[in-house]
Design goal:
single chain; alpha/beta; ten-stranded mixed sheet; three-stranded antiparallel sheet; 12 helices; 19 strands
């Protein structure tokens, strides 16, 4: 069994004390130890290890100097219950695939955090009886993988459920208490004024329970954003919300604030380039923010004509880039200089025509990844749906795959 914490040797402890670095230690399959500062867990980009054509984590580490990954997502079983699974289908208790990714990362001197929740699917906070049961499910994940960090991604549709959010915040507090040194981030939706009504209610729930994570991060995309200026404005507004909610001064609020962006083309057709990431990175570091991450490494590569670049994809960014361009900003946030030898990105390919899928039907039942055409676009189902018109709601069950 991996232990959450291990004793540091005297020399290592002295070195860490001298640098002022908070570190956690784990033991990997080979018996070697890996120590990462909290800054690395704060810089870990999201990676889906089982879906969206997972990239090779070791190759990303070699190319960029990245050491930490935010693995997504742990959910309740699709059929219901209070046991942790990857994506609702792969039980953590019998997992070997994600374990292999984690062992590979740790063998190269890195580590992982695990993200729970996300957009879509059934969350454990919705299915577990109370905060204690929810925490017990997440503790299985921490113990199974010897985690030093965990991310609560609380957003649509779960954060509209008061009882579920109470369970999630309560579970986060319990895990923080029972796992000393655990790095805990809470990620939620971003809006132009910082975060929306449900995000503010989540913060009030945290305040009422006396829970303070390492950071509260917002995702300023998919809400009418246009480049870095709109994102930094949202971060400034969110800072004011943190101040007013918790009674913090500005500096304390920034020290508990995080950014979680989306590289390239967002779900709603916004575009965020490398230059936008640099601007937000400069803002985050100059204001001494606690976290800088993005969704996702699966998308941190250029689309090919076959990918139909120019629409939102789970496996490429739809902007001109070299592979892992956006990961380099995470490396910089962690305080490391990435390798400088990179090729010149080729132009974004012209999208190839796409044939229309079978027309959407109001009476048909669609499950995750089913496709249909409607209004001259192809759409992919994010989860089970019936009689919900594609595109009718920005937060609905359908992902726009582009014109057909």
């Amino acid at each position: 069994m991996r232990t959450l914490r291990a004793c540091l040797g005297a020399a290592a402890a002295v070195a860490l004390a001298a640098t002022g670095t908070t570190a956690l230690v784990t033991t990997d399959a080979s018996g070697a130890t890996t120590a990462l500062s909290n800054r690395w867990y704060a810089a870990a980009p999201y990676l889906m290890p089982l879906d969206n054509d997972p990239p090779d984590a070791a190759a990303i580490m070699d190319a960029t100097g990245l050491k930490a990954f935010q693995l997504a997502f742990v959910l309740a079983p699709n059929g219901g219950g209070c046991s942790p699974t990857w994506g609702g289908t792969a039980p953590v208790s019998s997992d070997t695939a994600v374990r292999s990714v984690i062992d590979t990362v740790r063998a190269k001197g890195g580590d992982v955090s695990v993200s729970i929740g996300g957009y879509g699917g059934t969350k454990l906070g919705q299915t577990c009886a109370d905060a204690s049961a929810t925490a017990a499910a997440y503790q299985q994940v921490i113990t199974t993988y010897g985690l030093h960090a965990i991310d609560f991604d609380l957003e649509e549709p779960e954060y509209e459920n008061t009882a579920a959010i109470r369970n999630e915040i309560g579970a986060a507090k319990i895990l923080q208490q029972n796992n000393p040194g655990l790095y805990v981030s809470v990620t939620t939706a971003g809006t132009a004024d910082g975060t929306g009504w449900f995000g503010k209610q989540m913060l009030l729930e945290a305040k009422s329970q006396g829970f303070t994570p390492n950071n509260f991060s917002i995702m300023p995309f998919d809400g009418g954003f246009s480049g870095a200026a709109s994102q930094t404005a949202a971060l400034t507004n969110f800072n004011s919300i943190l101040q007013s909610t918790f009674g913090w001064d500005q500096a304390t609020a920034y020290a508990h604030e995080g950014f979680s962006g989306m590289n390239g083309r967002s779900d709603s057709g916004e575009y965020f380039s490398q230059a936008d990431f640099q601007t937000v990175l400069d803002y985050a570091t100059s204001h001494h923010m606690d976290r800088f991450t993005f969704w996702s490494l699966n998308r941190d590569r250029q689309c090919t004509p076959a990918d139909n670049g120019g629409r939102t994809s789970g496996t490429c960014s739809s902007v001109a880039q070299n592979s892992w361009d956006f990961a380099r900003y995470s490396v910089q946030f962690a305080g490391v200089t990435p390798p400088t030898t990179t090729p010149t990105p080729t132009p974004t390919p012209t999208p190839t025509p796409t044939s229309c899928k079978t027309a959407w039907s109001a009476t048909a039942v669609y499950v995750k990844d089913d496709e249909a055409s409607y209004g001259g676009h192809n759409w992919k189902a994010k989860w089970w749906t019936q009689n919900e018109v594609p595109g009718a709601s920005e937060w609905g069950p359908w992902l726009d795959e582009g014109a057909c």
